[in-house]
Design goal:
Blueprint: H1 18-40, H2 67-88, H3 104-112, H4 123-141, E1 147-152, E2 159-163, E3 168-170, E4 177-179, H5 180-193, E5 198-199, H6 201-210, H7 217-225, E6 236-237, H8 238-254
Antiparallel strand pairs: 1-2, 3-4, 5-6
Helix pairs in contact: 1-3, 1-4, 2-3, 2-4, 6-7
Length: about 260
C-alpha cells in the first residue's frame, strides 16, 4: 500500500507512512500551541503578529475583533472536532455518543496522540487539510510582511520564509521541518563559498544580518574606500566581505 501523502510504500493497514504520521502529529501539536496566541490576536488593537503582539494606538476606533482570525479559529475548531470523531469512529449524526470536548487545545493534543492517526481511511486527506490550516495560522500570527526569506529547503530547494522569533520552519512543498538557524547558515555558506556571488552593500548587509552576523552598509563602503574591499561591476563579492568580517576574530584566536 502507498502512503496517501507522499506515495511511498507503507505497512499493510496504514494510510500514511511513519514519517508522515510524525509530521501530522507535529503539525497538530504546533496548532495546539498556537491556540492561545490565536485567541489573543482576536483583539484588533494588537499589532498583527500573535507570537509577540504589541498593542497599538489607532486614529479611529478599530473593529472590536479581527474577523479573519475568528473565522480561522472556527475552521480549526470544526476540523479538529471532525478529525477527533473520525479517529474515535463516532457518527457525526449520533450526538449521544459524541463526547464533546470544549477545550480545542486538548482536542488537538488528543488527536496528535491517537493510536489510529496513521491507520484511519482518510488520514492523507485530513493531513492535507490540517497543513493548509497551519499555513493560514502562521500567516495570521506572523504576517508575510514580518517574514523574510532565510534560505532554501535542503530537499526540494524551495525558498523558505520565517518570522524573527521562529526557531523551526516547515517547507510548504515537501513538508520537511528544519531548524531556521541551520537554513540561514546554509544559505550564508553558499553565498560566501562561491566568489561569483555578488551584491550591493545593502543586500550583503541584510543577508548577513539574517544569519546573525552584523555588518552595516556603511562599513562595507568604508572598506572599499580604504582599499580593503574590491568592488566589481556587479557589486561586492560576499566571500570578500565575509573574510574581512571574520578576519580579526581568526587572528585573535591564532594568537
Amino acid at each position: 500500500m502507498n502512503c496517501q501523502n507522499c506515495r511511498t510504500m507503507t505497512e499493510e493497514g496504514y494510510s500514511v507512512c511513519e514519517t508522515c504520521e510524525m509530521r501530522f502529529a507535529g503539525t497538530l501539536l504546533r496548532l495546539a500551541r498556537d491556540v492561545t496566541p490565536l485567541h489573543d490576536s482576536l483583539d484588533a488593537t494588537l499589532h498583527p503578529g500573535g507570537h509577540s503582539p504589541v498593542r497599538i494606538q489607532t486614529a479611529t476606533p478599530p473593529t472590536p475583533i479581527r474577523l479573519d482570525v475568528l473565522d480561522l479559529i472556527d475552521m480549526l475548531d470544526a476540523t479538529a472536532r471532525e478529525l477527533w470523531r473520525r479517529l474515535d469512529g463516532i457518527d457525526a449524526l449520533d450526538w449521544r455518543k459524541d463526547k464533546r470536548n470544549e477545550d480545542l487545545k486538548a482536542t488537538l493534543i488528543a488527536c496528535a496522540g491517537h493510536p489510529r492517526l496513521a491507520t484511519f481511511a482518510d488520514a492523507g486527506f485530513y493531513m492535507h487539510v490540517v497543513d493548509g490550516i497551519a499555513r493560514k495560522v502562521d500567516a495570521a500570527l506572523d504576517p508575510p510582511e514580518q517574514r523574510r526569506e532565510i534560505g532554501t529547503c535542503e530537499l526540494c530547494e524551495t525558498m523558505l520564509t520565517a518570522g524573527a522569533a521562529d526557531q523551526w520552519v516547515t517547507c510548504p512543498v515537501c513538508g520537511r521541518e528544519q531548524r531556521a538557524q541551520t537554513v540561514k547558515l546554509r544559505r550564508l555558506k553558499t553565498l560566501c563559498w562561491d566568489d561569483s556571488e555578488r551584491g550591493s552593500a545593502a543586500d550583503i548587509s541584510k543577508a548577513f544580518a539574517v544569519s546573525g552576523l552584523k555588518v552595516s552598509r556603511k562599513t562595507i563602503t568604508t572598506w572599499e574606500q580604504r582599499g580593503k574591499l574590491p568592488r566589481h561591476a556587479d557589486g561586492y563579492a560576499y566571500c570578500d566581505v565575509y573574510r574581512l568580517l571574520i578576519g580579526p576574530d581568526l587572528t585573535k584566536s591564532v594568537r
